[in-house]
Amino acid sequence: MAIGGKKPDHLKKGFFVEPTIFTNVSNRMTIAQEEIFGPVACVIKFRTADEAVAMANDSIYGLGGAIWSRNIPEAIEIAKRIRTGTMWINTYHQLSPMAPFGGYKQSGIGREHGVQGLLEFTQAKHILVDLGTPLANRLLHNYVFSK
User: Fold this and answer.
1) Model-level pTM?
2) CA 113, CA 7: separation in Å to the nearest integer?
3) Burial annotation 11-21 (CB, 10 A radius, 16+ → b, else e)
4) Is residue 108 part of a domain?
5) Number of domains observed in the structure of the chain
6) From first to last of its 147 residues, what are the pLDDT tens digits of the chain?
7) Is residue 3 a part of any domain in this protein?
């Protein structure tokens, strides 16, 4: 632990911790593999973008991540390769109600917000009717029903 980790003096009740940073962390350590919802950061060194992407994807979780870079096109390409529901570039935890929010892998089920969030309240059904027409002329219909 490089800094933080103490209970703030002004917050006697509840479970609170000062912003905390851990250094010299490897990607195999428990602290690097857990979803910690608090002001805690682990610093893991890497040499290449490919190595950073591999470490980021080497997790059972995938809620969100962030990249800080001056090279925005490169940051976007890297963000596309990381298996998380949200990737921020040069910011963190800004959310739009018009954009979907939710994780990959074991970080949540489904999506909130945006069209994808609304689709969580529907259920798709595919109905195919053979009206005796040749296979090439059959129409496929998708219907959406509310749950």
Assistant:
1) 0.72
2) 34
3) eeeeeeeeebe
4) yes
5) 1
6) 999 999 998 888 888 999 999 999 999 999 999 988 889 999 999 999 999 999 999 999 999 999 999 999 999 999 999 999 999 999 988 888 888 888 899 997 788 888 888 888 887 766 666 566 666 555 555 555 555
7) no
